[in-house]
UniProtKB/TrEMBL annotation:
ATP binds at residues 31-38. Transmembrane segments: none annotated. Residues 273-539 form the UvrD-like helicase C-terminal domain. Keywords: ATP-binding, DNA-binding, Helicase, Hydrolase, Isomerase, Nucleotide-binding. Its EC number is 5.6.2.4. The chain holds residues 457 to 1082 of 1082 of the full protein. It is an enzyme of class 5 (isomerase). It comes from the Bacteria. It catalyses: Couples ATP hydrolysis with the unwinding of duplex DNA by translocating in the 3'-5' direction; ATP + H2O = ADP + phosphate + H(+). It comes from Solibaculum intestinale. This is DNA 3'-5' helicase. Belongs to the helicase family. UvrD subfamily. Residues 10-271 form the UvrD-like helicase ATP-binding domain.
Amino acid sequence: TEPQTKDPLAGLNDQQRAAVTEEAKAVAVIAGPGTGKTKTLVSRILYLIQEKGVKPSQITAVTFTNKAAAEMRERLAKELGSKRRLKGMTIGTFHSICLSLLCEQKGDVTVIEEGEALSLAKEVTDSLPGRLSPRRLLREVSKVKNGMAPREDPPEQLAQAITLYNERLRAYGVLDFDDLLLCTRDVFSALDKQARRPFTHLLVDEFQDINEIQYQLIEEFAKDSESVFLIGDPDQAIYGFRGSDAHCFSRFLKEYPDTRVIRLTSNYRSTPQILACALPVLPALEEGEPPRTLEARRAEGERVRYVTAPDEKSQAIYVAKEIGRMVGGMDMLETDAGIKERGQTLGFSDIAVLYRTHRQAALLETCLRKEGIPYIVTGRDPGLLSDQGRGVLGFFRFLQNPRDLISLRACLRELFDCPPDLAASLLQELSQTGRTLEELGPEKKADKAVEKVLALREDFAPRFSKAKPQVLVREFLLACAIAETEEFGHLCAAAAFFDDMPSFLNALVFGQEGDLSRGFGRAYASDAVRLMTFHGAKGLEFPVTFLYDVSKGVLPLDAPGRTADEEEERRLFYVGMTRAQDELILLSAKEPSPFLADIPASQLVTGCTFLPKPPAQGKQMSLFDL
Ligand code: ATP
Ligand code: MG
């Protein structure tokens, strides 16, 4: 018998129902945070399947992260009563969808990970005179590939470096991250209608953060679609620095004037107090833009708090202490509004601490650890894949795909000290003859590094698809006699969040902000405080949200060689604040961010200054002797 299913329209408001059932070919749901856009998208998929008889294989949903895709899948499976009923449906990021399309057309496709791209870029810049940095080269390459063409022609040396870099990718037969989308667009647009995978019903979440190539891909995919459903919020566009254009909604509406626009205006997530603080920080409306309407559906709650600390360390201590107090049970909260008691219902996983940059996590982590508070840090750790880590990744990617020579190269060079010349000649031979590593001549096979890779491959191949990634990584390090440094500790901790090696490798290569995590303490059980950047928190919600160090120089961010886009930084602050459901705490350890001046003073509980007192009793010692 068919599993029981629920009514896909149950629990939706009128605006949301209208969006779910809209029959127009193109639908744009443009609405503020917490208005149920993502919920509406999920309901629309259910509606298409249950009420319209659409086959799952005719549905494609694009999400911003792999993790969001996995969650959507889970939610749908639950609603439909079984995973089987999702069979054939495509849910994923642009990159994962493009990878699968391209593999369908061209067989094996190897996409190199960021660190590998950097090492290729370094080879190029080293071979040229001048002082072009590899990072700068990659930034420029990415700009060109993402359609952010510079106004003037690049200087000759840069232009040459870009050409060389692209030639090198071609020589190795690999694609970089941006190529994956470009190449898919070109391959797909050249196909006959019959040969194309049909995108009968295309749904896109977080449309406001689409870049030029992604916009073109949507157009390409949508050519034969019966319906295109785009949802997002221009006020939450925060990826301009990566080539996204906050105006993509207005562009779409201009280019496709028949698009039916639906607005959702009820916010179900946050208390009225939180919304009253968040809305005023947004940039002023452009001329002709409709006014922002975001009505709080929730009952009145706590006022938003603003806490200052004399320095960053005391700020981090405050966060740890406050979280301990909130979860610890009945306790007194001292504010200028008086003293009140707090309930006991809060768990660690109800709390998030958001910061502007990853680097700010370290101090927080130290303080949380001291207090024994379990946490999960989500985000791309800059150290996660430095050199040796890339060698480990290279080994497993090579194991997965013996044609992936660039991964083989990373493994030979980073883990087994293979001289660059030998690695290069090996690679050349393998790619020109199409031989496998085993089929090499005896003297090449006798090379120490090659011998090791062959032996390890034999050892690990049978377990690759069965064992847990954390176990595989640990055993591999042991087998290579590599000591567990902090870097590998992070890699193992990240592996623990995945059930199988292929999905872990996929996250390492394609992972967006929200896809990779590592934890401390009881973190692997799910009750842990969440730490992540404002960017990484997009689309999520937490009962209690701390915004860490909302200070001058941090928001807007002052970084060397980069001018902050003030409007984008304002939207980022807005995204951060609107993650909070019940309680929002803003913190600053320096001069406050100028954006705070836009929050009406009457909305904020200020004067909560945190000054760590010298330790009097032994119990609090741990906090201060950092
Ligand atoms: P964001 O812009 O931050 O991505 P969103 O518009 O996608 O937000 P959702 O995450 O879909 O919003 O929903 C926010 C919260 O509101 C969720 O907890 C969701 O369950 C709840 N919600 C949405 N619609 C309703 C509704 N009609 N009744 C009750 N709760 C709702
Ligand atoms: Mg959403």
